[in-house]
Amino acid sequence: MRAKTKYVPIPSTIILPERDAERAPVLECVKLGITLGGIKAVEDFNLTVGRTEIVGLIGPNGAGKTTVFNLLTKVYQPTTGTILLNGQDTHGMNTMQVNKAGIARTFQNIRLFRNMSVIDNVKTAMNNEMRYNMASAILRLPNYRREEVAAHRRALKLLSIFDMQGVADVPAGSLPYGAQRRLEIVRALATNPSLLLLDEPAAGMNPSETADLMDNIRKVHEMFQIAIILIEHDMSLVMNICEGICVLNFGHVIAKGTPDEIQSNPAVIEAYLGRKKEA
After folding, report:
1. At what angle do helices 177-189 and 207-224 cross, to 10 degrees?
2. H-helix or E-strand containing 42?
3. 22-102+193-273 CATH
4. For the segment 247-256, what is each residue's pLDDT rounded down to a tens digit?
5. Is the pTM of this model over 0.90?
6. Contact at 8 Å (CB) between 165 and 153?
7. Where are the domains of the chain?
């Protein structure tokens, strides 16, 4: 005879924006971790992101932030834990598969095809949607031409979000730094993500460019209604744009909460400023 199972309520620490509360999260990380060179670079990382939430991932240098992004995009395969993307376990997926499943990212160091045109950089991200084969491309058959025309129009439409359609035929490497950052975001959006990861998007920007970036992130969020996680050291940007913030230190989550909660959290203050010496 089967023994009776007793069920008990378990308190949940998941907090989502009210607008996302009735829908399944876009991302769930459960006890995620990785060991690199015998060192636990990330350990017991738990994070749930609502379908249209903007989340900041912050922490001192070396805290493990980019490592988390590399785990989410399968640059690294996790040693422990689970990643659910739109409810689907990404275990065993590679980088291309997880991108097709809905995650797109930008990088700390800009990774554009510098000698290709701006518009061709965007179109390279649309390969998953192309339905013609190699023979059609070589022979320039009608279905190839239709797909290329559609891709060209869509790329121009995406570039117009940041008023970049006028530089569509310019080599990407000749763009000013801020414009290259914007192009990276456009290229990521071309993959139709449900989750956009921005790795230090304001790095190297002056205050004016950073203000423009904030406006652009808000514009993307409003237009596409997608979730965004950003790693950033510019605390003004983080506190002004993020709804929820997750703080990492030495690979561990030390705090999660709203910007107001994070700014007054003693563990966060200590991680950034160090422990005060006793008198």
Report:
1. 10
2. strand 39-49
3. 3.40.50.300
4. 999 999 999 9
5. no
6. no
7. 22-102+193-273, 116-186
